[in-house]
Amino acid sequence: MEFTSINEMFKWRVERSGPQTALTYKNTQTGNWVKVSWNRYYETVRFIARGLHALGLEKGERIALFSDNRVEWLFCDLGALGCGGVVVPIYHTSPKGDVEYIVTHSDAKFLIVENLTLLDRVLQVREKLTALEKIILIEGPAPDEDDGVTTLSQVVEQGRQAEPGLYKSLSEQVGLDDLATIVYTSTGGPLMGVVHAHAQILAQQYALQQMVQLREDQTTLHFLPLSHIFGRTVQYLNLFTGITLALAESYDRLMMNLQETNPDMMAAVPRVFQKIYSGVLNEVALSGGMQRTTLNWCLDVGRQVSRLKDQRQPIPLVLNGKYQAARKLFFDRFRQKFGDRIKFLVSSGAPLQKEVASFFHATGLTVLEAYGMTEVAGAATINTVTDNKIGSVGKPIHGVEIELAGDGEIRLKGPVVMREYWKSPDSTASVLQDDWLSTGDIGEIDEDGFLRITDRKKDIIITSGGKNISPQNIENHLKADPFIDRVYVHGDQRNFTSALITLNRQNLTQWAKEKNIPHTDFAELTQREEVRRLIEEAIQRKNQDLSGPESIKKFAILPGRFSVDGGELTSSEKLRRRTIDQKYSDILDGFYE
Fold first, then answer.
1. How many CB atoms lie within 10 A of CB 444?
2. What's the pTM?
3. Distance between CA atoms of residues 80 and 101, nearest Å
4. Alpha-carbon distance 274 to 476, whole Å?
5. Residues 16-38: tens digit of each pLDDT
6. What angle do CA 269, 270, 276 make, to 5 degrees?
7. Which secondary structure element, helix H or strand E, spans residue 10, and what is its range?
8. Between β-strands 436-445 and 451-456, what pairing exists: parallel, antiparallel or unpaired?
9. What are phi and psi of 445, to 5 degrees?
10. Other Cβ atoms closer than 10 A to 536
C-alpha cells in the first residue's frame, strides 16, 4: 500500500491490527513484561499530539527527543509526527556540549527529556538555548522553580481534554514532502543534521520489507538505540509489518531478554555480536583440558562447514557427521540462548568480522549483514536468508542504485537518499551531485553483485613507504580476541603501524582470578606484565594473518576505556580518530622515537 505519510501508515496499521500486541516492555518494578495493543498505542499518540499542539507546536517546527530507549520514546516520536512536528533525536549519552549544539542548530522549539539526570545536563546550558520554549520531562516531577519545564503526563492530560477530531485533522495535513526528522551524525567535523521527509522513511520501509519479509505474528527484540537511524528503521518496520516490538532492557540483560521474549529476529550493531563471540572464546580459554579440546574441535568443525555452505558447496559425509556431533556437544546449546523461534539476526552500523559471522553461521544462526547510513534513512544494501554471502553487506534494496567511483568510493542513488544537511548547503553540495550520494566508504562489488566494504575513504592510512592500509580491517581483526575491547590503529605517514588497546574488563578480570594475579583495581591490572604478555601473544597470533605493513609493531594498553564522555567515541560509539590522535599524541609519538 502506498502511504502519504508515516501518520497514515500508523493509522492503517491500527485499523488492521487494533487489539493485537504492538509493543512489549519490562516493568522494572514488577519484573513482568507489559503488552501494549495497537489501539492503546494509537490512543496515547493521539493524546500526545493534541497536547503538543495545545502547547504551541506547529507543523514543521522541531522537537528534540533526549532519552534512552523506552516505550514513551515511541509514543512521543509518533505524537510529534502526528501534529506535523519534526523529530530531532539526541543520544542519551550525549554530553551537554552536543545537546546544546543540536538543540540550537536545529532551532528546536520543544525538548523532551527522559529524567532528572538528563534534565540537569540540559539546565546547565539552558540560557544558551534561546529558541527553546518548553522542556517536557518524561519521568520525575518538574522542578518547581523552573516554569519552563512541564511533564509528559501533563501534556497527555491536555491532549485528553482537547477536541477529539483534532488529531485526525493535524495528522492528515502532513504529506510525503513534509519533514519527518533531522538526525545528527558525525562526519569528521561538526555534527551534521541529516534531513529526511516522510517520503524517505516510507521508501525505506517499502524496500526493506521486500528483503526481510516480516509478519504480524512475529516478534523482534529491539536493542538498537532509537536515536540512531538503524533503530528508527526497525521502529517503523513495526508499523509497516505489524511485527511486535519488544524493548530490551540493556546489554547486560540482553541474553535474559532473549529467553523471555523468544523473538523471531533481532537487529544489533556488530559490537554486540563481537561481545557474544568474545564470551565464547573466553569460555574456551578458561575451560579444563578435555572440555577445551572438545570446544575447540567443535569451533573448528563449525568453521569448515560454514565455509563450504557460504561457497555453496556440498558438505562431505564425514564432515557432516562431525558437525552433527558438534551441534549436540555445543552449537545447539548455544543457539538455545536466542530462543527456539529465532529466524535470523541483522548486523549493521559498522563492519562485522567475518570470523564472528562464520561462528554464528556454524551454530545455525544466520547473521544478515547490511550496509546503511544516516544519509539513506537506514539500509542501502542487505543480505537475505535466501541470498547471503558472509563478509559482504548484501545487494541493494529495491530502488537503490550503486556505483563505485574511480578510487573505489561507494555512491548511492534512490528514493531513500537524504534531502540535505540542515543549514549546511556547502556540505550538502560536497556529497550530493546529480542525486548521487558520495558515502565516503570504499567498497568492492563481486561477480555475484554482493557489496563488500573495505574502509572509510578518509580513514585510510598511507605509510611513509607508500602502502595504503585499512585501519578498520586491522582493528576488527584484533577485536576478535576475547581480552581486547577496543583497538585504535595508527600509522599515517609513519614507517610502521602501531595500536592503542583497551581491554575487556569482564574477561580479563576472570582470567586474572583464574591465574591468581594480584591487583587492587582494573586500571592496575591492565598494566601488569602478565597482562602485557597475554596481549602481546594475541597480537603476534593476529599478525600472522596480516601483511608486513599491516602488522602491529608496537602497542600500548590503556588503563581505562574509550568513551563518549572522554571524547574518543561518537554517540554511536565510533572512534573519533582525530581526537584520539591528539589526546594520546605523547604515546603515539613515543612509538616512533
1. 13
2. 0.84
3. 21
4. 9
5. 999 999 999 999 889 999 999 99
6. 110
7. helix 6-17
8. antiparallel
9. -115, 120
10. 13
